Structure formats: structure tokens, C-alpha cells
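hi! just following up on the protien thing from before. the input was this:
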Amino acid sequence: MYDYLIYSRLKKYAKAQKLYHMPGHKARGEFRAMFPDAQLDVTELSYSDNLSCPTGIIAAAQKDIAEIVGSTASFITTDGSSSGVYAMLFAASKRGNKIIVQRNSHQSVWGACRLFGLEPLIVQGEEKDGILTPPPCDIIEKLISNDNNIAGVLITSPDYYGNIAPLDKYAEITREHGRLLLVDEAHGAHLAFGDRKGYAGLYADMWVDGAHKTLPTLTQGAILSVNGEELVPLAEEGISLFRTTSPSYPIMASVEYGVKFLVNNPRFIQNAKSAVTAFRREVDGIIPVVRNDDWTKLLIDFKPLGISPDVAAARLEKKGVYAELSDGRFLLFYLSPVTYAADLTALKKKLLSIINNKKVKGTYTEKPSVPMCDRSYSFQYALRKACEWIDLEDAVGRMCAKNAGITPPCIPVVVTGEIISAAAVKTLTSAKTTFGIKDGKICVVKK
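and the predicted 3d structure came back as:
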């Protein structure tokens, strides 16, 4: 059994006076009444250690986490997975000026490329029912073998829809050519436990886990991990640049808790997976559940039902159920090891009540496909050029100057440097929520 080191230390000193150091709420008065855990919210003190240069309980907690997840070193971050992505691409920028990335990479990937002057070489797999699959190995092999300036590959696995990339095959390619395999595993922290199938730590040089997404951890809690002693100094330097110097101690404690809880209580994963398997079996032939690689991503396809997932989501919300995502075709329910069988029984009942409601039949409209855009110029070239905002309908044939896409899941429809297609305009125009679009305008390179 692993001890919860950070939490235990915070609890031990919870009753100490908070009057003479940060934070400003002092754990007193109305604030403490509204936020009972304010006593655990402290700053860097003699008993609480310092995340920037840990030597005490934080250092011990990170050592335990590394042992559990099987890394050379692991670093807690209270800034979400994004700071870990920045740290990984900081390390990559020391190895070359190009990086292979998927089109469906998170915004932080593109932001890091912009910051470090990395040219993103975009790869993507086939589109299946409106969802991009992981890129084929032969494309990655061809790119790497023909360009020594490519520092490595950054892969998102699992993605928002539960697709797990063939990391074992990617690792063979990157190792053969002496490049880095970096994995944004923000949606897969739970994969470090159980059978570890598809777990990034088995193959990657560096990877980041969004602990808060699928572990019992507070929002913004994440972990950057490294395989290989030679990369540890780069990881430490990178994470120090992008991690806050005023980290939340409750979030830190919850990251350690989330990891150790599953080691101490393995039955939770077993029970949750069994409950998901039972749900799939019980609704087979009634509710179209998409087959994917990740049991925590419960994806319902509403096209065969002829029902708009937006309509279904709105009705579910009236019943107290909030889906993670509605993308025009699918509803995504985001589960975790602390999802119980009773939760899925309740979800099944509420889904069936909607599916059997004649009023919602015929509300489905076709979701636009993911468009392919002509990449005539580089990402970095377009960033250096003067730009302007123009109406979306006038943007066909113009070069994109700022990524624009759909959120969630924050995937670009058109990337900086690409020529905007009519299909891209149609997709962006029809999307309910977007990024990179302001008042119906998109940023393009000036002629």
C-alpha cells in the first residue's frame, strides 16, 4: 500500500495558523465556510516542500509516481496536460526544427510549435464515420527517413473518441532513426493500470497524462513522465518554464492520490470495466455504441437512430445527465475507474426514454466530414506574414494565418499555412462552437 504523502502532510498541518503567509484567504471566515478545504491550500513552507525544486514530500511523491507508472522520472503539474506538451516540444526543439504531428492534435501542440519555431508536418489517418483514425506507419517512416531535421513524432493517444494509436510500431520507427516518440496521453492516464494495453509509458520517450481526466484527481492535475536518464534534464528544464511557480497544493495532493488510489484499490478499474462491458451487452442492437479501443470513452452514434445528438443531449440535461461532447453525430460519455454499474444503469434508462420518444425521430442532419486542405506553404512561413480578418464566405482560396477549428475537442479544421477550402468553410460555418473564428471572420495572410 502506498501512503498519500502530500495529502497526509497537509492534513497534519491543517490547523496551523494561516495568518502570516500566502494565500490571502487565510482559511478563515466566510471563505472557509464556503470552501471547507481551504486549510489544505498553502504555499511553499518548511513542511510543504516546493514543486519547483522538491526535496521533501513532493520529491518522495514524484518518486513513487514514477515507480508506479514505470518511468525514469515523473513530474507533477497543476497546469493541466498543456504544460507537459509544451515541455515535450521544448525538448524536441533541441533535436531538430520539424516535428510530425496529427491533424487532430490539441491546441497546445500548435501553440508550442509556434513558440519554439518548429515546423509541424501534419499526418492523418483515414476518416471513419467522421472521426480521424491514427496515421499509418508508412507515412511516418517515409517522412523520418527522408529528413534529418525531424526531431520526432508527437502522437495523441488515446484521442477524444477512444482511438489508441499503434505506439509499438511508431516506437520501432523512431528508435531505428534515432528520433523522439512523444505522446499526448492526456485522455489516457488510466492506461497505466490494469493490463496496460496501449499505455504510452511502454513505448514513448516522453509522455503526458491528464490525471484529472480519468483518475480521481482535481481538474488541472497532470503528470509529465520520461523514459531515459538523458532526457530527464530537458524535461525538468522544460516543465520549469511552463509550470506555474504558485502551484495548488490540493491539486498536487490529488494527483498523487489519483495514481496511488488505483494501485491501492485495483478492484475499481476491474469493476468499472465490467460495468461498461455489461452496458454494451445489454444495449446491443438497441443503442448504437461505437467500438473503440478505450473503455472509458462511451460513444453513441445517433445517425442510425435518426436523432440529433444535440437534441438528445438537451433532453438528457433536463434529466440531470451531461454528456462530455456532442459533435453533430455522436454523444460522448466520459467514464473513469470510479464510474459505478448503477451510473450506467441510470444512463441506459434515460437514453432509452429519449430513443423511444417519437418527437425526436427525424431530427438528425448529416455532420460535415473532416476536410482536407492544400498545404501550399509552411506553418512558420504563414506566421511571419502580415494578416487580416475576413468573412468566412470570402476565405475560400486564401491562406490561413491562425488555426481555426471546432471545440470540443479543439481540433483544427484548417491549419496555419493551409489554403482554405470550400469544405473547410462549410464545416466551420455549420459548427456550433469554434475557435479561431471571430464574429464570422477568419484570419488569413494578406495578399
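The mean pLDDT is 95.
The first strand starts at residue 73 and ends at 77.
cheers
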